[in-house]
Amino acid sequence: MFNGVKLKKNKYNKLFKCCIFSLDYTKLYKSMKKLLLGDEAIAQAGIDAGISGMYAYPGTPSTEIMEYIRASKTAKEENIHMTWSTNEKTSMEGALGMSYAGKRAMVAMKHVGLNVAADAFVNSAITGVNGGIVVVVADDPSMHSSQNEQDSRYYGKFAQIPILEPSNQQEAYHAIINAFDLSEKLNVPILVRITTRLAHSRSGVELIDTKREQNKLELPKNPNQFILLPSIARVQYRALLDNYPTFIKESEESILNKYTDGSNKKLGVVACGIAYNYLMENFIDKDIDFPILKVSQYPLPKKYIAKIVAECDAILVVEDGYPFVEEQIKGFLDNDKVHGRLDGFLPRDGELNPNIVAAALKGEKFEKTADPEIVQPRMPSMCVGCGHIDAYNALNEALEQYGKGRVFSDIGCYTLGAYEPFTAINTCVDMGASITMAKGAADAGLTPAIAVIGDSTFTHSGITSLIDAVVDKSKIMVLISDNFTTGMTGQQDSNALGRIEKICEGIGVHPDHIRVFVPIAKNHDEMVKIMNEELAYDGVSVIIPRRQCVRTLKDLELNAQIKELGLA
Amino acid sequence: MKSDIIISGVGGQGTITIAATIGGAALNNNLNLKQSEVHGMSQRGGSVVSNLRISDKEVFSDLIPFGGADIILSIEPMESLRYTSYLSENGWLVTNVTAYDNIDNYPEIEALKSEIKKVKNSIILDANKIAKESGSSRSNNIVMLGAASHFIDIPTDELEKSISQFFNAKGDKIVNANIKAFRAGREFVSGLI
Ligand SMILES: Cc1ncc(C[n+]2csc(CCOP(=O)(O)OP(=O)(O)O)c2C)c(N)n1
After folding, report:
1. What are chain B's domains?
2. Taking Cα atoms as reference points, which of B63, B64, B79 lies closest to residue B13?
3. Binary contact (B65, A354; C-beta < 8 A)
4. Beta strand A292-295 with A267-272: parallel, antiparallel or unpaired?
5. CA–CA dist A317, A337 (Å, integer)
6. Quick check: CB of A110 below 6 Å from ligand 1?
7. B29 three-class SS
8. What residues are paired with A427 via a beta bridge?
9. CA proximity to A519, closest of A550, A494, A497
10. CA distances to A27, B51, B52, B161 from A16, in Å
11. Domain range for A46
12. Per the domain annotation, does A269 fall within a domain?
């Protein structure tokens, strides 16, 4: 199969901790296969492919990749790097440094994380790699836990590198192992695109027999490879372009792409990644008589695309995400035999499912039957006892004299303050935007403007924003709601722990206007008073409601750290 | 053999534990399975659902098709109704009656019950009460598994074995309490079908 690797049979001895249950699954279930989330299969594949470093910032649905590695005994024994990065850009750059030193590194992030990492990502295609790099990006069609449903395959095409899009957990495992070999062979990072459904669905996965050794420390053969000065970059970029036909050939030869012929040429279906499953689901007990091209490696396998388009009267393209493949095949001149999301055969947005694909095969539209009227929406909400709640109660009261519409928030559990009964915030756009948007609004004359940001988001992208505000002496109050954790994604380490005041002071916020307090109901009046004082201040103030996330109270390691740092 | 099971509830109610126990039994018996879960935002008190698919043939889609579920197993009554469009014509809806009321406009429980009874095959039980009576008030999710086990195409002793394996690390007392809860749920439904 994949590079002739042997499949591992009946191996239960390897201990691994399942991040959700914190139990040792292998002791639980004697089986030929391990029950793994797509994310976990990817993480295990990274370990088995001999990575020396895992770099990630949390983000649903990618978080469990790093969490699995951090819980893995093998990863620990192997001394694999596994601290959470401060953001996705630092993740990508960390991996690039490890690659420079000759070793293999894997990066994982959610789709919007790639916007943050884009500078490093796009340029890493031009430097190329020394040790292999695999960048796993998890998209979220239908926005189950995200602010958009952008399709990362465009980034892969933009950077002009190969993309793998596995259709199931087993394939994901092999695709990652394959991707590292491919990266080193083709001298580019490889993008692996998954979606929520694959990331967060478990299935039995067979593992390979032997774990590959890590690469040795070794400098790049060409000492200029990573110096992207124009004179060098031009040469490197040319080499990347010259490599493109090879990438296409790799796709045509890849076992991830599969052409299954059929006698009925009225229709040909191009099915990408997980959408292939939604197609096949409709033919469990039925024969398929039309040609199918399964696509799980890009650039598109030209030879097969040409064949299916030439031989079939109509083409249906099924893909989760944007009409990425459909648009390429349809072309600028709008080949009208190509159907999919662009001409309404499939919905233009949202996640696909077997029923939608079944209807499209018949040229129909799927309408889900309505839920019984009695069923009410049940939105996520902040936990009982959460410190963000007390902070919002105080903020809402303090702002009564200034009026609504001036609270710029950010991304985290505190974003749930948008819902009733708080309706405390007016914006949520991208990580770090709270402070800079408040500053911009203050520039326009909306003062005082308030930013609400979490501790992890502050170190992710808030620091640079705060510098802008300090430079302009903007009249803003920045509320950093510090709960010692990256809460929304499942309580991962926060790199802000114990550093926030020093960072703010170092940037130039006046120490008298950095105010820390404990957000509990008992302190309500004091909180309102402090807020009122700082709202009246003509400059940048930072107030820090600080109380541990209730979901982490049993985390012994964190409790010890909090005590040691004197934070509570 | 094929069982497509929708497991629903509110974030934190233990839907993933149910899915993992059935999934474990399936894997022990060399069946194919896919188990899709909700992680992330909705786990904060929002509605959550797990799609569990077990078959002796290859399972393609991680999602159960609409109209394809053999069982809806719900730890919460309103949540059971959110997924009725997934239920197959002869499928069973088995739900706990105890409401998780964390929203302003939560419906009247009697109205929910009569809506649930409109489903062709439905069973409503008080899993919280049964769990309490069997001595383990936190095991209402396992009571629900016991109740639904009549409709799951896996032998009862295999499900019990998987429960034991799942709770093994927590000690015999917890294992026995959950087995008892499973049996109490199963027995309750025996009288109804
Ligand atoms: C660029 C980007 N990366 C990651 C995420 C995922 N994400 C959403 S909320 C969040 C956690 C924020 O933690 P913190 O700011 O400490 O707030 P808390 O949830 O703890 O209240 C993360 C990582 C995202 N939305 N965007």
Report:
1. 2-99+108-190 (3.40.920.10)
2. B79
3. yes
4. parallel
5. 11
6. yes
7. coil
8. A408
9. A550
10. 9, 24, 23, 21
11. 33-205+221-240
12. no
**B63–chain A nearest CA distance, Å:** 7
Instruction: Tell me the whole-structure pTM to 2 decimals.
Output: 0.94
Q: What is the CB neighbour count within 10 angstroms for residue B52?
A: 28
Whether A450 maps to a domain, the answer reads yes
Residues 6+ apart with CB under 8 A from B31: B1, B54, B55, B56
pLDDT digits (tens, 9 = 90+) for A25-60: 444 444 468 889 999 999 999 999 999 999 999 999
Cβ(B38)–Cβ(A37) below 8 Å: no
d(CA A69, CA A237): 34
**First-to-last CA distance in chain B?**
22
Please write down the long-range contacts of A27-30, taking CB distance under 8 Å and 24 or more positions apart.
A27/B168, A28/B24, A28/B165, A28/B166, A28/B168, A29/B24, A29/B27, A29/B28, A29/B162, A29/B165, A30/B28
Select from A383, A453, A486 the residue to mutate for testing ligand 1; criterion: most ligand atoms less than 8 Å from CB.
A486
**Could you report the per-residue pLDDT of A132-150, keeping only the tens digit for each?**
999 999 999 999 999 999 9
The rounded distance, in Å, linking the Cα atoms of A515 and A97 is 38
3-state secondary structure of A279: helix
**End-of-domain residue from the set A240, A267, A288:** A240
Whether residue A61 has its Cβ less than 6 Å from ligand 1: no
**Residue of chain B whose alpha carbon sits nearest to that of A143:** B41
Distance of CA A424 to the CA centre of its chain: 27
User: What is the number of structural domains in chain A?
Assistant: 2
DSSP secondary structure string for all residues of A83-142: PPPSSHHHHHHHHHHHHHTT--EEEEEEHHHHHHHHHHHHHHHHH--SS-EEEEEEE-TT
pLDDT of A24? 38
Identify the three-state secondary structure at position B2.
strand
> Best mutation site among B44, B103, B159 for testing chain A: the one with the most A CBs within 10 Å?
B44
* Helix, strand, or coil (residue A217): coil
Is A283 a member of any domain?
Answer: no
- Judge whether A386 and A549 are in contact, CB under 8 Å: yes
Output the 3-class SS for B123-161: EEECHHHHHHHCCCCCCHHHHHHHHHHHHCCCCHHHHHH
The answer for A160, left when phi > 0, alpha when psi is -120 to 50, beta otherwise, is left
Tokens of A182: 């491919």
Strand bridging mode A258-260 / B47-55:
unpaired
Per-residue pLDDT for A12 more than 90? no
Residue A213, burial from CB neighbour count under 10 angstroms (0-12, 13-18, 19+): exposed
Instruction: Please indicate whether residue A545, judged by its CB atom, sits closer than 6 Å to ligand 1.
Output: no
Amino acid identity, position A48: D
ipTM of the complex: 0.94
Under 8 Å between Cβ of A190 and A179: yes
Radius of gyration of chain A, Cα coordinates, nearest whole angstrom: 25
CA atoms of A382 and A361, how far apart (whole Å): 43
Q: Encode pLDDT of B6-57 as tens digits.
A: 999 998 898 989 999 999 999 889 999 999 998 877 778 899 999 999 999 9
Instruction: Indicate which CATH number applies to the domain containing A191.
Output: 3.40.50.970
Res. A430: pLDDT tops 70 = yes
Closest CB to B105: pick one of A31, A60, A376.
A376
Token digits of residue A375: 């069923």
Order of strands, edge to edge, in the sheet holding A163-164? A53-56, A105-110, A133-139, A190-195, A163-164, A297-298
B69 contacts B84 by C-beta, under 8 angstroms: no
Element (H, E) at A441: helix A433-444
Distance CA A540, CA A371 (A): 49
Assigned domain for A110 exists: yes
